[in-house]
Amino acid sequence: MQQLKRNTIALSLAHATFAQFILLGSGAAMAQEAASTAAATDAAKPAAEQMDRIVVTATRRNTFVQETPLAVTAFNQDTLQNNQVKDLASLATMVPSLVVEQHGDSGGVHVYMRGVGSANHTELGDPAVAFYVDGVYSPRPQGATALMYDLSHVEVARGPQGTLNGRNSTAGAVNLVSAAPSTAKFMGSAGITVGDKRHLQTQGMINIPFSDDVALRIAAIKDSHDGTVDFRRGSNVMPGTAKYGAGDQMGVRASLLWKFTPQLRGTFIADYFLDQGAGNVYLAAEPKAGEKLRSALIDTPGTLDQSILTYKGKLNYKPTDALDFTYLGSWSRYKRQNSNDSDAGLFPGFKSENRTDWAQFDSYSHELQARSDDDAPFQWVAGLFLFNEKNKVRFDIDRSQISQAAVQQDIANGAVIFVQPTVGQYASAMSFIQGDRQLKSKAVFGQVSQQVTDQIKLTAGARYTKDHKFDIGGKNWACPNWPANTPLGTTVLTADQLRQLVTPGTGLANTHNIGPGGAITAASCGNTPGDNTADLKYGQATWLGRIEYKLRPDILLFGSVTTGFHSPAIGDGGATTKPEKLTSYEIGFKSDLLNRELTLNLDAFLMKYKDKLESQVVNSVLANFNAAGATVKGLEAEWVWRPTKVDRLTGNATWLKAVYDDFMSCDVDAARANGQSCGSTAPLVSVGGSTMKHAPKFSTTVQYEHDFNVAGGQLTPRASVHYETMSYVGAGAFNGDVPGHAGVKRQEAYTTLDLSLRFQPANKAYTVEAFVQNATDKAVKLDVNEICTDVGMPCQPTQQIYGAFYNAPRTFGARVSMKF
After folding, report:
1. Are 223 and 204 in contact (CB under 8 A)?
2. TonB-dependent receptor plug domain location, by residue (predicted)?
3. Interatomic CA distance for residues 293 and 290, integer angstroms
C-alpha cells in the first residue's frame, strides 16, 4: 500500500516536471508568445478555471506568491474553509514540513518547521516560528491557537525571516492577514457548521461603507464541541464535567478603514479571542492491550480561561509615487487561568496537578517603514522596530500519592480514586511566581534591490537587533525540598524525604500541597524560595543576499544566503543561555506553466545552526540549553495542476534531513531507566548525527478534486491524503530506544485521509458541504514525555511512564455558508 502511494506521488511529480521541461525546450519564440497572451488568457477564462493569485507581504511589498523569491505558501479564506481549517494546527498538512504539537498546562502550542521549533512555552520562551496577525508579532505560543476567520489570506514563509520580519523567526514565520474593509459596497457573509461531538460553529461578517472614504467591517466566530478523552472508571470528577479536548472558543474583530486624504489612509483594528475549553491532557504513549487510547483516569478536570485583546493601527502615507511611509502600532493583553491533570492517571494513586493561578502578559510594538516605488529599477525599504513585553504569572504544581492498598480498595469498591494522602504518605509542591519579567527589543533594518537587467535582480539586506530581558524578584518555591521524593516502598528515609510525608497531627490535608490560590510562606512550605532574578542583554546583526533570475515571464529562479538568530533564554533560577544563530543557503524555482494551468515550485535548502537552543524538563524544571549545532537540509515541492477544466491536483512534498552536529549531552530518559540522574551520576554522551524532532525523511500531502455539473450547480468531491515516514517526537536529542521502552519516542510511518463533498449553485449564493477529517481515525503521536520526571519519584521507583499528545480523532460534519 505504501509503495503504491509513493508511486502515485512520484508519477504526479514526474508528469508536472516533464511538462515544464518540454516548455523550457520549446524556445524563445514560444516563451514570448506565452508572455504576450498570458494576461489575455487569464482574463478570458471563467474565475473557476484560473489559479488563485494571492498577494503576500513577506518582502514588505505587495507581491504575488509566484513572484516572491522565497519559500512561501499562501491560502485565501475560501481555500481554508473548504479544507476545514480553523486554526494553525488544522493547517499543518497543507504546508511543507509544518508541525503543530499540543501542550497541556500552558494553553498553547509548539510550532515546528523543517524540524526546528521551540518547546519553551514559559513567560519569555520565544517561539522559533514567529506568529503574526496583520503584521503584528504575537510573542506567546498561545497566540498561535487563535481562530482563522474572515481572512484575506494566511501566508507561511519557511526558513529564517529575521531581516525584515520582527523577532526570532529562525525556522519561519506565519502571518494571518485580515480581510480589509471596503468602501465599494455593502456586503456580508454567514456560515454554520455542525458535526459529531456536538460540534457547532457559527460565523458571520458584515461590511458597511459609510462613504467613499470610510468603511467598517465586523466579523465574529463561535466554535464549540465536546471533549475527546473519556473518563475512565475511578476518575474523580463531578457529573457533567467537560472532557479533555472540549473546545469553547470565540473571536470578534472590528476593522475601520479611513481614507483621510488621497495620500493618507488608516486602518484601525480591535481583535478579541477567548478560549474557555478544557485544554489537552497526556494519553498513554504505550497503551495496554484492550485499553482505550483516548481515555484517562482523571483527578483534576481540565479548565482553561484565556483571552487575547489586541488593538492595532496602520497608517499609510504616500506623498509621491516614488515614496511610501507606513506606521504599524499595537497593544495587546493576554490573560490566562487553567488547571491540568499532568499525570493523566497513568499511575493510579499518584496525582500531579498543574495550575496557572494567574497570568497577564502585556505587550506593545511600534514599527516605522519607508519604501521606494514598487516598479522602479532600484528599490529600497528601511525601518525601525520597537517591542516591549511585561509578563507576570504564578504557576503551581501539587503532587501527592496514596498507598497502592488504598487504590486497590477504591477500585474494588467501585469508588473514585481519592488521592488525599494521610499520615506517612507523600506530598510536595512547587510554585513559580514571576511578578515582573520583561523584554525590551529594538531593531533597525534595511534592504535594497537593483534590477540589473530585464532578467536579473540583486537584493541585499541587514538588520541589527538589541534585546534586554530581565526578571525582577521572581521566586521558585520548592515545598519542602523538591525533588528529594520518597520512593514507593522505601523503609529507610533521608531527612528530606521524611519532611515530604504527612506527619502525625496534620490530619488528612498535607500543608505542603498548596491548592488553588493558596498562600505560600516559609513555614507552610517548609523551605525558603529560590531566586529567579536575571538580567540579560544581547545585540546581533543579521543579513541577507539574494539573486533572482527571470528565465521566462512565468518562471523565476532565485538563490539566497540568509542569517538569523534566536534571542537567548532566561530559565528557572535565573539561568541564561547563549543565542542561537544560523546561516541558511537556499535555491528556488517558481513556475506558472501551461497558461497557468500548472504551478510548480521547488525549493532546496541547507541551514547550519550554531548553539541551537533546546528546552527539556529535567527534575521537574524546564531547562534551556545550547546544543553545539545542527544541520538541516532538504527539498520541498508544491504543485497545483488543473489537467482539465474540472480536475485539480494539488499538494506538497518534503525530503528532509535534520541532524544534530557533534556535542555532548545527557540522555535524561536513559539515565532514569538506569537509576541515574543527569548532572550527578549519569554520563555525558555524544548525540552527533541524531535526527531532530519532527523531521521525517519524507512527507507529502496530495489532494484531488473533480467538479460535476448537476442540478444547476457544481458538485465537488475532494480527497486529501497525507503520508509521513517515521519521525522522532520525544523530548531530547537522543534517537536510541529507552531501555525497556522500545519505540516510545517514535511515531512510525502513517497515512491520514480527509474527505469532503461540496455543492455550489451556479449563482454561488451559498455553499453546502459534508466532510470527514481523519477518516481512518489514525492516532498520531505529536509529543512524548515521561510523566514521572525525577529519579526516585513515588510513582516510578522501578519504571518509567510515558504520556503523549495525539492528533484529533475522526470527526465529521456539514457546513452551510452564504455571501450577500
Report:
1. no
2. 66-173
3. 9
Residue 633 contacts by C-beta under 8 Å, 6 or more apart in sequence?
Answer: 605, 606, 607, 656, 657, 658
Q: Give mean pLDDT, residues 341-358.
A: 91
Question: What cell was used for 225?
Answer: 464541541
Nearest to 191 by CA among 115, 54, 55, 86: 86
pLDDT at 785: 87
Using 50, 70 and 90 to split pLDDT, how confident is the model at 408?
confident
CA dihedral 747, 750, 754, 755 (to 10 degrees): -160
Q: How far apart are alpha carbons 70 and 142 in whole angstroms?
A: 27
How many residues in total does the chain contain? 820
Q: Could you tell me if 97 and 634 are in contact, meaning their C-beta atoms sit under 8 angstroms apart?
A: yes
| 145 torsion bin: left (phi>0), alpha (psi -120 to 50), beta (else) | alpha
* Grid coordinates belonging to 739: 531501555
Are 99 and 782 within 8 A, CB to CB?
yes
C-alpha distances (whole Å) from 716 to each of 316, 642, 707, 768 are 41, 14, 5, 10
* 133 contacts: CB under 8 Å, gap ≥ 6: 143, 146, 175, 176, 178, 271, 310, 312
What's the predicted TM-score (pTM) here?
A: 0.88
Say which DSSP state 690 is in: P
- Specify the pLDDT at position 119: 77
Rg (CA), the chain: 27
Q: What are phi and psi of 47, to 5 degrees?
A: -55, -35
CA 711 to chain CA mean position, Å: 41
| Grid cell for residue 722 | 497525507
CA distances in angstroms from 181 to 215, 273, 710, listed in the order given: 6, 20, 35
User: What amino acid is encoded at 271 in this protein?
Assistant: D
Helix (H) or strand (E) holding 288: none
Which residue type occupies 378?
Answer: F
Q: Cα–Cα–Cα angle for 434, 440, 445, nearest 5°?
A: 150
Give phi and psi for 640, each to the nearest 5.
Answer: -135, 120
Count Cβ atoms within 10 A of the Cβ of residue 2 and give its class: 0-12 exposed, 13-18 middle, 19 or more buried.
Answer: exposed
Task: Note the pLDDT of residue 225.
Answer: 97
Per the CB < 8 A criterion, the answer to whether 277 and 246 are in contact is yes
Q: Is 119 helix (H, G, I), strand (E, B) or coil?
A: coil
Task: Give the model's pLDDT for residue 9.
Answer: 41
User: Alpha-carbon distance 281 to 364, whole Å?
Assistant: 32
**Nearest CA-CA partner of 74 in 90, 61, 100, 55:** 55
Strands, sheet with 283-284, edge to edge from the N-terminal-most edge strand? 283-284, 802-806, 781-786
Question: For 110-119, how does the pLDDT look when each residue is reduced to its tens digit (9 = 90+)?
Answer: 899 999 888 7
Closest by Cα among 437, 346, 343 to 393: 437
Highest mean pLDDT among 180-189, 349-358, 782-791: 180-189
Q: Does the pLDDT of residue 668 top 70, yes or no?
A: yes
Task: Please say whether the beta carbons of 754 and 762 come within 8 A.
Answer: no
Contact assessment for residue 188 and residue 169, using Cβ atoms and an 8 Å cutoff: no
Mean pLDDT of 724-753: 90
Task: Please report the DSSP string for 552-578 in residue order.
Answer: ETTEEEEEEEEEEEE---B-GGG-B-P
Would you state the torsion angle of the CA atoms of residues 669, 672, 674, 680, taken in this order, to the nearest 10 degrees? 110
In 402-510, DSSP assigns E strands to 426-451, 456-471, 475-479
Q: In whole angstroms, give the CA distance from residue 112 to residue 96.
A: 11
Q: In angstroms, rounded to a whole number, what is the distance separating the alpha carbons of residues 560 and 72? A: 14
CB 752 within 8 A of CB 722: yes
The cell 487569464 sits on which residue?
42
Query: 261: Cβ–Cβ under 8 A, 6 or more apart, which residues?
Result: none
**pLDDT tens column, 762-794:** 888 899 999 999 999 999 999 998 887 665 566
| Average pLDDT along the chain | 86
User: CA 473 to CA 775: how far, in whole Å?
Assistant: 51
In the block, residue with C-alpha cell 455543492? 759
